[in-house]
Amino acid sequence: MVTTGLRPRRSAVLRLLVVALALAGTLLGGLGGAAPASAHAALTGSTPAQGSVADRAPEQVTLTFSEGVAMGDDSIRVLDPRGKRVDDKKLRNLSSNRVVKYGAGLPSGLRDGTYTVAWQAVSADSHPVSGAFTFSIGAPSKTTAPVTQQEAGGGLVGALYGIARYLAYAGFVLLAGGAAFVVACRPAAALVRSVQRLVVYGWALLTGTTVVMLLLRTPYTGSGDLADVFDLGGLQQVLITKPGAALVSRLLLLAAAALFVAVLFGAYARAHQPAGADEPEEPGEPGEEHGQQGEADERGAADASDTADTAEEARRRKDLTFGLGFGGVIVATGLAATWAMAEHASTGLQPAVAMPVDVLHLLAVAAWLGGLAALVVSLYWGPTVERAAVRRFSRIAFGSVVVLVATGLYQSWRQVGTWSALTDTAYGRLLLIKVALVVVLVGIAWLSRRWTGLLAEVPAGQVAAAELRAAEEAAQDAGREAEQDAEESAGREGQEEREAEKAAVGASATAATAATVATAATAGPVPKSGSSPASNGTPAPRDTTPATDDGPSAGHDASAPDPTRAAQLARQQAAVRTARTKRQRDADPERLGLRRSVLAEAAVAVVVLVVTTALTATEPARTEATVKATSGGQSAEAGRPLALTIPFDTGGPDGKGTARVRLAPGSSGRTNTLQLRITDPSGKVRDVPEVKVSFTQKAKKLGPLSVTTRHTGKGQWRASGIQLPVPGKWQLSLVVRTSDIDQVTEIKNVKIGS
Questions:
Q1: Which residues pair with 117 in a beta bridge?
Q2: Residues 6 or more apart in contact with residue 108 via CB below 8 angstroms
């Protein structure tokens, strides 16, 4: 199978993709609510309530959630003031109709004091949630049980799981969209190596990230310890959950996808391989070049005649295309369903409608963005793309956008609910960002369609023939260069041998002269006339230098090319061919404009995919509104006592210090007590001339409500009877004066529960 590809300069492509990733990181970094650990099921109520004081010990602790959750016997833990677990360690399912409620039994005779309830669960859309609150029996105690501050699904494990989720989406888009591009838009792309790599890398990426997510489920929903990926018992528990079953199903479907890819780039590619593409011309001797060229022309004509598309071959290609298309749709739909059955669509409002809509949404995303990626690599690292192929993809992309708009509107209504939630919730703000990016993407796609309309048609057969001729010319150039290199090497070796022979002859003459002089010096008087030196018995010196071997072996050595030189020539030839191809490619302004616009589309698509992944990990706005409606504006955890550490610096001498503020119970509708402690930079308690505290809620234009503090000791102030009329986000303003002229105002945001 012949595969072709170009290797142009990739710096512009890489720079644009890096900018796209940086933009995505900036968007997500500015949205605290978009973190992967954002809750989806939320605690809407509890019995006893957060911060309440009961006259006697309750029989059980119950928790009510906004949607379905998965819990175990260790999911609810009740700890006494010393940190000892006092519940019966058996989960009670108290759910009925649409009310999701779980509980844990308590023994009788519990001592007075403050008890801590720590809970952890997995929401119906596969995300872990956790929290803690306190209640008291008789009267609050001075100490409470410490609980971990690690949020479920957070830390290193949460970050790794979030990265794996994004890469899984990217792998699905490349696999499904790239394969669809080959089958539906450009069958000749099955022979292009860059497209092959794109689809295969997509399959490998999706497979690898699915395995990683399956191993990370145990620590992600439990301890948060990365070492628990090797917990086989935890893995067995994961496999029986809905998210675990979805991941295992995805792996089974990926096995079928591997067979699909093998057929796509095997039998399907061979069926669309141009005639003669698998038998490139071999270089011959210089003297035989013209004769071989004539034979090649005759052979090519015969092959073209023998391999012309018959009706049977056309039917076979049609059947193969239909089979691949049908099988590919089934596999892609199954893969998309593994997300729909374990994400937002599987819970909440109208799941029976939402799941098929979510599958259509994912398939449309893959067809558009994955096909776009295949078009990018074809334009930059492949042969010339036919206008017909670009137009087919343009039509598919337009249809995908229509499906995305329709399904996106339904999903937005289902997850957001109200117009105000678009700006008041993290989910709504992320959704607005995604809509804006999609609008930009559609605008760039419109420019690409304009460039497509200006393209000159290049038939697929002409492209294949041009590729074949280029390959033959490259092979002939390589053969001629190798012969020239061999001749140059032989010439250099012959010159070296002649110089060595001359040197040997000179050395022999010098040796003979020296021997004659030495003989004359030791022979005594000069012999008489007519006598010869030979008469004294001294033989005349002879040249004993061996003759140069000019036999067949020497000729073979001289004809062998230098490997280093041959490699250098091959690199130079490749660079020349690449530069020539790039010049020819860039000489077409329409295709140059299309490449740039499609690359811009791909860069924006990367950001869209990142924001989409963040949306799936963010609490839906409708769920957040439900929590506020059932808990007076805040979740159950929001009414916990507040503890703030506020550094300050008035700028004068001894102006630096730290204020520690504690507000209990931190609720509206009840009287709150504030305790304030001032320390210097070394941690020692210190006094200051004056402190002032006030509360303001800008949303409802309340405040500032001043708090009258009473100095109770060195560096200690206290205020009681503080009434905050409504729950929500308040601003605590602290004024610290360290001298007659040095003072500073520090402002902190606090959440007041109901």
A1: 78, 133
A2: 57, 59
- Give residue for tokens 């309750």: 58
- Mean pLDDT by groups of 10 residues along the chain of 754 residues: 39 44 40 40 81 84 84 85 87 83 89 86 78 83 62 74 89 94 91 92 95 90 80 84 90 95 91 58 44 52 54 82 92 93 77 89 90 86 80 88 87 80 81 86 78 57 49 53 56 58 51 46 43 43 46 48 76 70 59 73 79 74 63 45 84 88 80 89 89 88 85 90 82 90 89 76
Domain assignment of residue 86, given as a range: 43-125+133-152
Tokens of 451: 């460039």
Closest CA to 650 of 735, 524, 589: 735
Q: In whole angstroms, what is the distance from residue 601 CA to residue 369 CA?
A: 9
Cβ–Cβ < 8 Å for 611, 27 = yes
CA angle 522, 528, 534 (to 5 degrees): 55
In a domain, 538, yes or no: no
Q: What share of the chain is helix, strand, coil (3-state, %, to 5)?
A: 55, 15, 30
Structure tokens at 654: 């001894």
Question: Are the CB atoms for 374 and 198 separated by under 8 Å?
Answer: yes
Asked if the structure places residue 500 within a domain, the reply is no
CA dist., res. 690 & res. 734, Å (int):
11
- Alpha-carbon separation of residue 73 from 119, 221, 396, 487 (angstroms): 11, 14, 51, 84
CB 98 within 8 A of CB 113: no
Q: Residues 662, 701: one domain? A: yes
Which residue from 678, 672, 647 is spatially nearest to 725, judged by alpha carbons?
Answer: 672
In whole angstroms, give the CA distance from residue 335 to residue 314: 31
Burial class (CB in 10 A: 0-12, 13-18, 19+), 406: middle
Rounded to two decimals, what is the model's pTM? 0.60
Residue 604 CB partners (closer than 8 Å, separation 6+): 20, 437, 440, 441, 444
pLDDT at 335: 95
Q: What is the CATH number of the domain that holds 715?
A: 2.60.40.1930
- Among 422, 418, 417, CA closest to 434: 422
Pair (346, 381) in one structural domain: yes
In sign, the C-alpha dihedral spanning 552, 554, 558, 560 is: positive
pLDDT of residue 585: 56
Pairing of strands 716-723, 710-713: antiparallel
CA distance 720 to 665: 11
Of 394, 395, 405, 399, the residue nearest 438 (C-alpha): 405
The DSSP result for 386-428, as a single string, is PHHHHHHHHHHHHHHHHHHHHHHHHHHHHHT-SSTHHHHSHHH
- Count of domains for the chain: 3
> Same structural domain for residues 193 and 337?
yes
Q: Which residue has the tokens 């596999």?
A: 331
Residue 278 pLDDT = 46
Q: How many residues does the chain have?
A: 754
Does one domain contain both 174 and 144? no
Residues 147 and 174 placed together within one structural domain of the fold: no
Q: Is 375 exposed, middle or buried (0-12, 13-18, 19+ CB in 10 A)?
A: buried
Contact 578, 5 (CB under 8 A): no
Q: Is the peptide bond before 546 cis (omega within 30 degrees of 0)?
A: no
* Together in a domain, 107 and 252: no
In a domain, 188, yes or no: yes
Q: Reduce the secondary structure of 715-754 to three states and give it as a string.
A: CEEEEEEEECCCCEEEEEEEEEECCCCCEEEEEEEEEEEC
Residues 355 and 253 in one domain: yes
d(CA 67, CA 197): 42
The residues, ordered by sequence, that sit 6+ positions from 347 with a Cβ below 8 Å of its Cβ are 40, 67, 68, 123, 124, 125
Instruction: Please state whether beta strands 671-679 and 69-70 pair in parallel, antiparallel, or not at all (unpaired).
Output: unpaired
Give the SS3 label for residue 663: strand
Asked whether the beta carbons of 153 and 127 are under 8 A apart, the reply is yes
Specify if 595 maps to a domain: no
